[in-house]
């Protein structure tokens, strides 16, 4: 028997990794095209800088990692030497960084300064991925890592694309701590992309079209996608009910719920980021718990944190717990048990309880 070493993602269906990656690029196309048309050059150059940066650094560092033993640098410029290095580089080494680059650029505001885009892209692909060994071995989502890095280093909010660049308050920024502004944007405007925000997150309609394509093609795990979005919706429903009956009735429960669901990066993260097969657990329950926990943390950050958005933060936090989840599920049947479901619902109840107490005590007291 011959053992063939392979890198993640590991799939248990008749779908190649390269086809899955190509499907993700196809699913991203409508959102990317919308971002370029809506923002013009301010959106196009962000996507270009991000893509060139991540693809280049993936290639450069991959060559260093996979450099043939006892091969001198000058040999690379010979036909035989180039062929040796090329044998370790596949189409997946282009697809993977390109996907990360497009996702990273789409969770940035249009007009973000070029050097900011470059630094975040370089950080995401180098620190978030290549230092762990490259394709299939990273534990952090490169796009989320790059986005959070520039957010912290350059105070890059969803309203601010760089120095002296302000595009107006986003829907989430308007309602942070003040739900009286919830009628600033209609639910339909949020659904069709008629509101400010990160380039790829504003049009929920196109995101859902991409999700439908991925599910039909079986190129995204529905457990992670639905686990994240449903958990966020459920907990945000509890938050909306609590706010409506405990604090203020300025907006209906449905308005508050769908405003939060269609604003910011929840739908985009639930379709294109939480479903990353490399940085998510391998077991069925593991992926559900991973995604549900990220959804719960997103609500926690939005309501209790200083940032109006929490999708990228929550994904990076749960990326750190992926190895622990896989360890916990090791050797257990790949199916759902009542104990596992009890743990899941317990987590949801604990987070919901924290949010209810926060709203009634802090938000209600301030109103």
From TrEMBL:
The keyword Transport applies. It comes from the Bacteria. One of its GO terms (biological process) is transmembrane transport. Keywords: Flavoprotein, FMN, Membrane, Phosphoprotein, Translocase, Transmembrane, Transmembrane helix, Transport. The chain crosses the membrane at residues 20-37, 43-65, 89-108, 114-132, 198-216, 225-245, 257-275, 287-305, 311-329, 341-361. The keyword Flavoprotein applies. One of its GO terms (cellular component) is plasma membrane. PANTHER family: ELECTRON TRANSPORT COMPLEX PROTEIN RNFD (PTHR30578), NA(+)-TRANSLOCATING NADH-QUINONE REDUCTASE SUBUNIT B (PTHR30578:SF1). This is Electron transport complex protein RnfD. The lineage of its organism: Bacteria, Bacillati, Mycoplasmatota, Mollicutes, Anaeroplasmatales.
């Amino acid at each position: 028997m011959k053992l063939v070493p392979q890198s993640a993602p590991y799939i248990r269906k008749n779908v190649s990794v390269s086809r899955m990656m190509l499907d993700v690029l196809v699913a991203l196309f409508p959102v990317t095209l919308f971002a370029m048309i809506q923002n013009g050059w301010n959106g196009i150059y962000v996507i270009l800088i991000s893509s060139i940066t991540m693809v280049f650094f993936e290639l450069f560092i991959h060559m260093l990692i996979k450099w043939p033993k006892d091969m001198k640098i000058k040999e690379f410029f010979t036909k035989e030497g180039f062929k040796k290095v090329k044998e370790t580089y596949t189409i997946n080494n282009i697809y993977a960084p390109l996907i990360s680059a497009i996702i990273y650029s789409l969770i940035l505001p249009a007009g973000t300064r070029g050097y900011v885009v470059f630094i975040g892209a370089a950080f995401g692909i180098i620190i978030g991925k290549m230092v762990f060994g490259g394709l299939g071995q990273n534990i952090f989502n490169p796009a989320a890592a790059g986005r959070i890095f520039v957010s912290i280093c350059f105070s890059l909010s969803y309203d601010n694309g760089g120095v002296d660049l302000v595009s107006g308050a986003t829907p989430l920024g308007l309602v942070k701590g003040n739900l009286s502004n919830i009628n600033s944007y209609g639910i339909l405007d949020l659904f069709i992309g008629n509101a400010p925000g990160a380039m790829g997150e504003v049009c929920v309609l196109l995101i859902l079209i991409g999700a439908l394509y991925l599910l039909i093609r079986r190129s995204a795990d529905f457990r992670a996608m639905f686990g994240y979005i449903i958990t966020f919706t459920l907990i945000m429903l509890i938050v909306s009910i609590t706010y409506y009956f405990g604090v203020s009735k300025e907006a209906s429960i449905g308005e508050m719920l769908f405003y939060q669901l269609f604003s910011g990066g929840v739908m985009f993260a639930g379709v294109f980021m939480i479903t990353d097969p490399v940085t998510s657990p391998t077991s069925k329950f593991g992926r559900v718990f991973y995604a549900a926990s990220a959804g719960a943390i997103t609500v926690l950050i939005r309501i209790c944190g200083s940032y109006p958005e929490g999708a990228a933060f929550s994904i990076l936090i749960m990326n750190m717990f992926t190895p622990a989840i896989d360890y916990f599920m090791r050797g257990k049947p790949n199916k759902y048990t009542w104990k596992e479901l009890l743990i899941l619902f317990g987590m949801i109840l604990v987070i919901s309880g924290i949010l209810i107490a926060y709203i009634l005590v802090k938000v209600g007291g301030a109103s």
